[in-house]
Design brief:
Elements lengths: L6 H4 L13 H10 L2 H5 L18 H22 L11 H10 L8 H12 L7 H12 L1 E3 L2 E3 L5 H7 L22 H7 L12 H5 L4 H24 L5 H9 L5 H14 L4 H14 L1 E5 L13 E5 L1 H19 L2 H25 L12 H8 L4 H13 L3 H12 L11
Antiparallel strand pairs: 1-2, 3-4
Helix pairs in contact: 2-5, 4-5, 4-11, 5-8, 5-11, 6-16, 6-18, 8-9, 8-11, 11-14, 11-15, 12-13, 16-18, 16-19
């Protein structure tokens, strides 16, 4: 019996008809693992396009690493926090499910693809990877000839994945970090229909309103990509000791940051880089502690009665590695050239679909799989049709998006024997 969670936490978005030996949170985790959306992550870009080399991380391997780190944070806190006890503890299955699901909604080509889809979807409510994950879990993760449906997630899972809680219409900047406007009922559900206090009416304040499981997932995600993306970037020869030294000379670094970079430059030149970064993961986990807090939900659920606190020096280290990767990898001409190509591919595919399904020109071509073509044409609202088209594109793997583009635009690619 775990008193940390109550009936409010395990309530599901829709009633579940089947019960078995698993806890509700174990059912959440298993439904994610066996979904096609989860399997598609194996062919979606993390930093470098999937399939280019076998040893680079994909969205799938990244999600598995985040899940392992998340479970380890739970285990560490359950053993060492003064606030947790044998019958009052964080559920590692729930945190694992949140971590496994956190990137399900990301489109092909990583964050570059996310930016492109958001730009193309702005007239129809925008696109956001986290909001798309919430949409998958709640409404679309399963599909068949009769339509699409969600996995009936628990409130704790859906809330754990809901990293951002402001709506598109509430965001002054439409770049990222929002829910779709149509997801307000989902926000109301995870908040237990509580009206938002005045203190959370500010768009930034509401985005800081996160359950403890969401906070753990967020730090596990930061840990994984701030450390592991460095390893991949070194293996891809984007990062070298000489490049880091040149970058450091142009920065205003404090003594701690200078020491960390000097250690990283030494590690890069040794064969033990991966082992060193793996040890740092342990340090990042052990830097966590729980602190009690009070807010309008803390009496309803313990998931809001605690905040995750991370040692400031460790957070500073993570921020340093992210700055380094941003400047030397993500802003490099090589990656920007690829991103320009990916932007072009997704925009062209979207334009063809938009012309056929949104302009009202009539049924000329069946460009989508049969069931999806029929279901979209049955929708009356243009915004809803656009969202379904965006679902289809966001669900593509990198390779599928490239093949779709080639089939539509390359005269000598594809045949009538191809499967769409």
């Amino acid at each position: 019996m775990n008193r940390f969670y109550n009936e409010f936490d395990v309530a599901t978005l829709e009633p579940r008809t089947s019960r078995d030996y698993r806890s509700p949170f174990q059912q959440d985790r298993d439904r994610i693992i066996y979904s096609s959306a989860f399997r598609r992550l194996q062919a979606k870009t993390q930093v470098f396009i999937s399939g280019e080399y076998d040893f680079y991380r994909t969205r799938l391997t990244h999600s598995l690493e985040v899940a392992q780190i998340g479970r380890s944070i739970c285990n560490y806190l359950n053993r060492h926090s003064e606030h947790l006890h044998r019958d009052f503890y964080l559920d590692a299955d729930l945190v694992e499910a949140v971590c496994l699901a956190h990137d399900l909604g990301h489109p092909p080509f990583g964050h570059a693809g996310e930016r492109t889809l958001n730009r193309l979807m702005r007239p129809f409510g925008g696109f956001e990877g986290n909001a798309q994950t919430v949409r998958l879990l709640a409404h679309t993760i399963y599909s068949d000839g009769s339509g699409r449906r969600g996995m009936k997630p628990t409130r704790a899972l859906l809330d754990g994945v809901m990293k951002y809680k402001r709506l598109f219409c509430e965001a002054a900047e439409k770049n990222n970090r929002f829910l779709y406007d149509a997801q307000k009922p989902l926000r109301d559900f995870v908040l237990g229909q509580h009206p938002l206090p005045e203190a959370y009416r500010d768009a930034e304040a509401i985005n800081r309103l996160q359950s403890i499981e969401c906070q753990i997932m967020d730090w596990a995600d930061d840990t994984a990509y701030s450390l592991n993306d460095i390893v991949d970037s070194v293996r891809a020869r984007f990062l070298s000791a000489a490049a880091i030294e040149r970058w450091a000379a142009e920065q205003q670094l404090n003594p701690t940051e200078q020491r960390l970079l000097e250690a990283l430059m030494r590690d890069i030149q040794s064969p033990a880089l991966e082992r060193t970064m793996a040890k740092k993961i342990g340090h990042f986990i052990e830097a966590c502690r729980l602190e009690k807090q009070a807010n309008f939900l803390s009496k309803q659920t313990n998931r809001y009665a605690f905040a995750l606190k991370v040692d400031p020096e460790i957070r500073q280290e993570a921020r340093l590695y992210k700055r380094l990767a941003l400047d030397l990898v993500f802003r490099s001409p090589q990656l920007h050239q690829l991103e320009a190509k990916w932007d072009f591919i997704l925009e062209k595919v979207f334009q063809v679909y938009r012309q056929e399904y949104l302009t009202g020109a009539g049924e000329r071509f069946r460009l989508l799989p049969g069931d999806l073509d029929r279901q979209i044409r049955a929708l009356e609202a243009t915004e809803e049709r656009a969202r379904w088209l965006c679902d289809h594109i966001a669900g593509m793997t990198d390779g599928y998006a490239i093949r779709t583009y080639k089939r539509l635009f390359h005269p000598d690619f594809g045949s009538i024997a191809d499967l769409i």
